[in-house]
Amino acid sequence: MRMQHLTLLLMERMGLLLLITFILTRIPQFRSLLDRRPDWRTGLTFSLVFGLVSIGGTYAGVTITGERVDSSFLVASLQPEEAMADSALIGVMVAGLLGGVAVGTGAGLISGIHAYSLGGLTCVADAVSTPILGLLAGLVARFFAEERVIAPVKALFISVFAPILQMGVVLIVNESSTAAIRTVDLIGVPMVAANSVGVGILVAMIQAAMKEEERAAASETQRALHIAEMALPFLKQGLTFETAEAAANVLRRELRASAVAVTDTKQILAHVGIGMMPGIQGTPIASELSRKAVQTGEIQITRTKEQIQPHHPAIGAAIIVPFRSGGQVAGLIKLYYASVRQIRPVEEAFAQGLSKLISIQLDIAMAEQLRSLMKDAELKALQAQINPHFLFNTLNAIVTLIRIKPEAARRVTVQLGHYMRMNLTMTQAPLVPLYKELEHLHTYLGIVNIRFEDQLSVDCQCDPGLESVSIPPSTLQPLVENSIHHGFKGRTDRGDVHVELRRGADGVHIVVKDNGNGFPADVLETLGASPVTGGGSGSTGIGIYNVNRRLIHLFGLEARLKFSNLPEGGARIECTIPYQAEERRETIDESDDRRG
């Protein structure tokens, strides 16, 4: 009966200790400890906190004198024949299981020193055993290092052995005296039950507190992301009076703030809600905290009416949220509230998240714009490189013709002027209709035929209905030029070039082949990847390299040029240029009409 009464009494007082500990888990500072990286400061704080929990478990214990149970509370000291049945091991075991070896040992030392200072039959055993048990709990915790918090059931099972080991130390220290054996028989089972159950419940409470914090953080992050996504489309267009007002309306509606203002680094662009007045747009930023937010890039909280712009009797506090673009503060979002009591830690955490999200998204948008501009600039540079390449070859031809055929040189010069005017208009756009590209090719061939006369034949075949299909400008001419100037170099026989433009399932299939020298074997694998030299041809490959790069930029790797040599002699270049969305529908319709 005494054992049952002692067990119930310990459980009751252990419940009181856990209630106090539960309140501890509600304190934000305690929760922040759980989220910090382990260092000596955090470890020392944890040791002190759980050491105090252990001391509380000691004071909530029950005094044992022989076989008599004394239910007195908060015993200050014990007589030599007295012992304490308590739940002091709860704090020590939880410290070791959550904080590791150092924290468990530290909490055990604090608890052991306190137990020794109380005196009593078990004081020496408690002083020796509690640091050792904290150390052992920390070592056991290493087996569960992947778990942020050990499972309560596991903690309960491990803690069963702690009071048993402590009772063994009591018997060893007291040399198994009659008083020690009688005491262990009476308090052993109640202490095992109270301490193991208490550890399991305390770990469960800490785990629940951490999950609650994580859910709250996830909820606020999701809320900030949702609001940022709604406001970003306006902010991405640039900070103007119109976009700022649209973003401010979205933020006020979603945040339910008394008012919201959006500024750049110098003036108020929009203000909606309480305090809105005519002429406020364009007003210079006047409040000291707003200027400080622009200068430092840190969130500022206004807690007095004097720090708020604009002044209004219904506005008593505000959060000033700076956002960045390109690493520099681009503007402010001001969230106004009726009272400073409305600015809770949740609002502050939300403001931090909103600032970071908007800044990150604006940086991403800027990076996308820069990438697009760089891509356009590279395409224009690639197209521009083709013109000097062709111009250089043509001028060489004119120099030769001036000496032997002045009239032909005059015609080539006229044709060249016509070609260059056409080229200037075509290269303004990334894509041109196929019929314009064919006109461009025929103008080029008009120049070339004057020089080569009957030594060259270029045959161009195009499937009907492809005339309006879009392709990059100056695509066909460099491929044909490659055949003429490099494929037939050193040849005296007639050169034949065939250009085929066929309708494919997914795009226009282009083939340019000739009966010339073919590609040198040592450069065939690297053609189009970079300008090349070698192979005895003297070619730099700039023309086909530029065409290949533009195709990849615009359509992806599937559109790249493919090079091969023909078995009968000569070279073959082919590629497939995808249809645009409207062209694909027209192609499908035409195919259906042909089947019908």
From TrEMBL:
<protein>
    <recommendedName>
        <fullName>histidine kinase</fullName>
        <ecNumber>2.7.13.3</ecNumber>
    </recommendedName>
</protein>
<dbReference type="InterPro" id="IPR011620">
    <property type="entry name" value="Sig_transdc_His_kinase_LytS_TM"/>
</dbReference>
<dbReference type="Pfam" id="PF07694">
    <property type="entry name" value="5TM-5TMR_LYT"/>
</dbReference>
<feature type="transmembrane region" description="Helical">
    <location>
        <begin position="186"/>
        <end position="206"/>
    </location>
</feature>
<keyword id="KW-0812">Transmembrane</keyword>
<keyword id="KW-0067">ATP-binding</keyword>
<dbReference type="InterPro" id="IPR003594">
    <property type="entry name" value="HATPase_dom"/>
</dbReference>
<keyword id="KW-0597">Phosphoprotein</keyword>
<dbReference type="GO" id="GO:0000155">
    <property type="term" value="F:phosphorelay sensor kinase activity"/>
</dbReference>
<dbReference type="InterPro" id="IPR010559">
    <property type="entry name" value="Sig_transdc_His_kin_internal"/>
</dbReference>
<feature type="transmembrane region" description="Helical">
    <location>
        <begin position="153"/>
        <end position="174"/>
    </location>
</feature>
<dbReference type="GO" id="GO:0071555">
    <property type="term" value="P:cell wall organization"/>
</dbReference>
<feature type="transmembrane region" description="Helical">
    <location>
        <begin position="87"/>
        <end position="110"/>
    </location>
</feature>
<feature type="transmembrane region" description="Helical">
    <location>
        <begin position="44"/>
        <end position="66"/>
    </location>
</feature>
<feature type="transmembrane region" description="Helical">
    <location>
        <begin position="116"/>
        <end position="141"/>
    </location>
</feature>
<feature type="domain" description="Histidine kinase/HSP90-like ATPase">
    <location>
        <begin position="467"/>
        <end position="581"/>
    </location>
</feature>
<keyword id="KW-0547">Nucleotide-binding</keyword>
<keyword id="KW-0472">Membrane</keyword>
<dbReference type="Pfam" id="PF06580">
    <property type="entry name" value="His_kinase"/>
</dbReference>
<keyword id="KW-1133">Transmembrane helix</keyword>
<dbReference type="InterPro" id="IPR036890">
    <property type="entry name" value="HATPase_C_sf"/>
</dbReference>
<keyword id="KW-0902">Two-component regulatory system</keyword>
<keyword id="KW-0808">Transferase</keyword>
<dbReference type="Pfam" id="PF02518">
    <property type="entry name" value="HATPase_c"/>
</dbReference>
<dbReference type="GO" id="GO:0005886">
    <property type="term" value="C:plasma membrane"/>
</dbReference>
<dbReference type="GO" id="GO:0005524">
    <property type="term" value="F:ATP binding"/>
</dbReference>
<keyword id="KW-1003">Cell membrane</keyword>
<dbReference type="InterPro" id="IPR050640">
    <property type="entry name" value="Bact_2-comp_sensor_kinase"/>
</dbReference>
<keyword id="KW-0418">Kinase</keyword>
<dbReference type="InterPro" id="IPR029016">
    <property type="entry name" value="GAF-like_dom_sf"/>
</dbReference>
